[in-house]
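User: For a benchmark we're assembling, each entry needs the component sequences followed by a predicted structure for the full assembly. Here are entry 17's components. Please fill in the structure.
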Amino acid sequence: MEERKASKRCGGVLPFIIGFLATCVLGWAVLPGMFYEKVDQPIWFSHTVHVEGEGMDCESCHYFRDDGSYAGFPTNEVCAECHAVDPEEAMEAIAEEGIDSNDYDAIMKAEIGAIEDNLVSGEDDKKQAEREYVVKYLIQGKEVPWLNYQFQPDNVYFSHKAHAELSIADLAEMKKELSDVVDPSVFEGEAPEQNCNLCHVKDIAQNDVPPAFERNILSGYSKMTMKMWKCERCHALKGQPNACFTCHK
Amino acid sequence: MSVARRAFIQMSVGATVGILFTPTVWTALDDVSIWTQNWPWIPTLKYGEMKGVPTVSKMCESGCCVQVRTVAGEAYGVKGNPDNPLSGGACCPQCANGVQNMNNPNRIKSPMLNGEAISWEKANEVVAEKLEAAGSKVAVISGDQSGTVNEVFSALLTSKGSDAFYMMPCDMQIADKAWTGLMGGSGQIGYDFEGSDAILLAGADAMESWGSVVATRTAYAKNEVRKLIFAGPLQTKTAALASKWVPVPAEGMAAFTLGICYYVLQAGKSVGASDFDQFKSMVMSNFTPAKVEAATGVKADMMADVAKQLLAASNPVVVPGGSVAANAAAFALNLLLGTGAMKVLPEFAKGVEGAMSRSDMLKGDILQGVTADLLFVYEANPAYVLPEQLKAGFTVAFDCVNTETTAAADLVLPIPHSYERYEDTANPYGVGVATYSMGAPVSKPYLDVMPAGDFILGVADLGVETFAEVIEAKVEAVGGDMDELIEGAALVNEASASVSGVTLAATVLGKAAVPVKGTGAVSLAPYTQLVVGSANQATTPNAPAAISNNQVAIDYSLVVMMNSATAKKLGVADEAKVKLSGGNGECEAQVKIFEGVLTDTVAAPLGLGHTVGDEFSKGRGDNVYKILTVSSEAATSASTWAGSTVNVAKI
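Assistant: Structure for entry 17:
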């Protein structure tokens, strides 16, 4: 009887509220982060070194081809314009040293002249990153499997060219409506000439250590992969078509 | 306990309700639904720069100058090469499926000796031993009409003291036998399809399967007059483009052409050939319109009309197909017409010392049979086309896909696909100006393959070590620029070979032009459509969608066409199942009534009925080569399929 009374006193509300609040906190603050695993880029690439140090501009690597398609990540062919290691010569030198061409650590430790003499970085840590790129990818004839923060699945056709003329300054007028789609901080301060910040990691051109790629453990996509409703929202606000075939070719 | 339990339940309910007020569940559901886009069997796209890499494709008989479409360096499609005059931006349906064929599961994956995989070193040993033992009894059958690889093979034969080089039966060979063999000419005959103002296709299915189809179509597309007359036993797709179809049986084509010569001679045309008078006399007495009509069934007024149109044109040309006699008669008619639209192309310089000239390579008559102790077969399928003509002690087959010939060969050596190797084409048959094109590898081979040229140069000392060096030597010999050629341009040589000393082959033609037919109930008119397949290339993965039910029925049986008069005579109706017997074989087929077939003639598509191949070609239709009859052309000493007849029985 005493127990029953006690129970009635609680009225069942407190445990309910505790449970409710606990999962609310978990659901808003803790669980969303657990859906993502952090993955580092295959090698360290510093935009700062290339942009500020070498004076390169965005178009040096990220440019529109003659046919209007967009060269997102630079290929070895582009990188080799500066990182001028001759793959054939390097491989011959590796073979002469008796090192397995797939034993990257051994090649890097061997400090082979055909590679070392053509490295352009100054500081040790940056030189090691460049060496790693050259040994693991350039001389092997393999493209770097960069992790694309803005990865879009194959069933979406996205044309950079079609979005190239979007102006951050113009879009700032509808930043309230776009607040769910675009990070509001993009509209702060003076609008940059190019609109990359609308979708890409903000101010990536000034980045020294690339942020980790956050992969959704369920879908496999990037945390920054834009969901369809975001595309539709912006299209609607800009008066653009939202028919299926606009993006699903 | 009771309180704790109740509180727990209440807290759980609260937690459940609470979680629904967070994005977690809804986001997770969304993510799970997206995850279903990533089933492991769904192929993923490759992203990167899209290019059109020029090269030469050798899937069709003449070879196509194409651009292989790549993305991030990986080939995914093919289009014509607009920078090359042989293509003009177009390519044939066989080469258009080049990438699909390159990735075909039917590719040969490694060297095979009597059905067992072996190493290239072992293959080298075996061939070296057989070469040593065979002495001069070595032969080569090539399915490539215009590539420098033939120079490597023929130089090998020369080094062994053999001249047994055979091309698979082709229009180029028949034309050469007529021009250099009967008429004493030199060089290679070509035609100005762009500049001629009256073209008589005397048996040449020029827009579908004869000569260099793409180059012909590209040139004809630029023709401002477009007066085209098609003569043949069947209304082909070429006939569909013509302003007039003249029904002429294949065996009567030479007589028909001489019948037109009659009118041309009557109009006072002449030519400075040494046997002109003899030719004129022969035509005016033996090939009068009445006699030709009696022999071929072609009405005299129809021949008169064709002759009139040719005589009225300023630059007419007659383009032959079929027998050696038909070719010689057409060349004689062109000479009489004094046309500039029949060209005589000089041969390009050789890149391999000791190699045979093209004309010498075309001399061997494969229809008469090939006997050798050691036989090399290069990208050809003689076991499918001519199974009874091959008698070899040991056969080495070079190919990139499994065929009837590789299945029957003792040693099978896989070669790279056209897009994985150096390839070239010099003067594909039919082009009006001497043209050389070449291409470098577009894709890296993904199988254990070796270019045939490299293999041969590895077993025989021919003065060069690799086929890439041979191509370099060829380019240098012809005066080309390697970089420009690799970028897709063609080397064009406007020069003409001399026609002095050419005769009209009056003596031979007088006998050879008389129509000779087999003893079967009806004539057989075999025809080729590139989508269906050719002698060396079975239909390709995407092509079956373009094959009509006039060639293959819905149940995959062969379809033969005949007109209603023939069907009535044979007692068969539309869609009737019949058995055709001819040569030494039989074919089963379904009848299709089509009034565009000459009476007493059955038209049947070549290229079907493969017993080895992929899912698109194997077991589709029946092999019409089985029912062709090889006969010897009177006086020309050449073998021909023209005049083949069949008996037709209802099943």
